[in-house]
């Protein structure tokens, strides 16, 4: 079955450490997204990518970085510059292009905590 | 700019009660509208969608009608079950040239047996 796989499910970060969250999709989608969700809050867009080798900042990009070297993969790095990284991180994908009005598909999320 | 406004929760209902979760939007162009559901510790799942005015999306007993005149997309279910307890998000996307989706803040539903 096609879908989005996020790993790991739980991740712990020490002070001053960078950590990378994995997101892989086999839906052949052009567009991929990273969101942050804090307890009781909605989704806030971190970065998105419409096509391989291209990505744009979302609303809260500071302290995060991404790459899009392959269509299937869109890893997110939470850098030490992100002072409050504890949150639930969701990766999503969509058709993009001619499928602009198609829904997003989401992974099961990664919960990041500070040690 | 584009935005989505949802009723604040939590919404607490008894089993078999009627559910309405209000959603209104502001958008340029011709948005597509979505409802997603999120169970604890999981990602969002698409519940239903509507891509043009007067379309009705439906799934698992839930329905929502795209009302352009009132810019609304309210979620309804005639008889809720305990298993419907979750957080519901209204969202939209437009043909404005960016591939961004706009989400409401979510409404938590708790159904009591």
Q: Could you characterize what this model shows?
A:
- The complex is a heterodimer of chains A (115) and B (113).
- Chain A contains no helices and eleven strands.
- Chain A has 115 residues and is mostly beta strands.
- In chain A, β4 and β5 form a beta hairpin.
- Chain A is globular and about 40 Å long.
- The mean pLDDT of chain A is 91.
- In chain B, strands 2, 5, 6, 10, 11 and 12 form a six-stranded mixed beta sheet that branches.
- Chain B starts with a strand and ends with a strand.
- Chain B has 113 residues and is mainly β.
- Chain B has strands spanning 3-6, 11-14, 19-21, 23-26, 32-38, 44-50, 56-59, 62-65, 75-77, 86-93, 101-103, 107-112.
- In chain B, 38% of the residues are buried.
- Chain B has no helices and twelve strands.
- Chains A and B meet through β5, β9 and β10 of A and β5, β6 and β10 of B.
What would you call the structural class of chain B? mainly beta
**What general outline of chain A do the C-alpha atoms trace?**
globular
Instruction: Please tell me the overall pLDDT of chain A.
Output: 91
- The percentage of residues in β strands of chain B lies in over 45%
| Rounded mean pLDDT score of chain B | 93
Helix content of chain A: under 10%
Cα-atom Rg of chain A, whole angstroms? 13 Å
Question: Can you describe this structure in just a few lines?
Answer:
The complex is a heterodimer of chains A (115) and B (113). Chain A has 115 residues and is mainly beta.
Question: How is the secondary structure organized here?
Answer:
The complex is a heterodimer of chains A (115) and B (113).
Chain A (H helix, E strand, L loop, with lengths): L3 E4 L2 E4 L5 E7 L5 E7 L5 E9 L2 E4 L6 E3 L9 E3 L8 E8 L10 E2 L3 E5 L1
Parallel strand pairs in A: 2-11
Antiparallel strand pairs in A: 1-3, 3-8, 4-5, 4-9, 5-6, 7-8, 9-10, 9-11
Chain B lengths: L2 E4 L4 E4 L4 E3 L1 E4 L5 E7 L5 E7 L5 E4 L2 E4 L9 E3 L8 E8 L7 E3 L3 E6 L1
């Amino acid at each position: 079955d096609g879908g989005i796989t996020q790993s790991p499910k739980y991740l712990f970060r020490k002070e001053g450490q960078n950590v990378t969250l994995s997101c892989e999709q086999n839906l052949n989608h052009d567009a991929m997204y990273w969101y942050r969700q804090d307890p009781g809050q909605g989704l806030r867009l971190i970065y998105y990518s419409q096509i391989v080798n291209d990505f744009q900042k979302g609303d809260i990009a500071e302290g995060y970085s991404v790459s899009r070297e392959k269509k299937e993969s869109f890893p997110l790095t939470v850098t030490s510059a992100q002072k409050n990284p504890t949150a639930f991180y969701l990766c999503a994908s969509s058709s993009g292009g001619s499928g602009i009005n198609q829904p997003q598909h989401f992974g099961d999320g990664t919960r990041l905590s500070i040690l | 700019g584009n935005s989505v406004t949802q009723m604040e929760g939590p919404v607490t209902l008894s089993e078999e009660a009627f559910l309405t979760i209000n959603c209104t939007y502001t958008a340029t162009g011709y948005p597509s509208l979505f409802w997603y559901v999120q169970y604890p510790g999981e990602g969002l799942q698409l519940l239903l969608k509507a891509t043009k005015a007067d379309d009705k999306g439906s799934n698992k007993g839930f329905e929502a009608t795209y009302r352009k005149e009132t810019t609304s997309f309210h979620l309804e279910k005639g008889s809720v079950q305990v298993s419907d307890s979750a957080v519901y998000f209204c969202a939209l996307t437009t043909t404005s040239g960016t591939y961004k989706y706009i989400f409401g803040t979510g409404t938590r539903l708790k159904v009591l047996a």
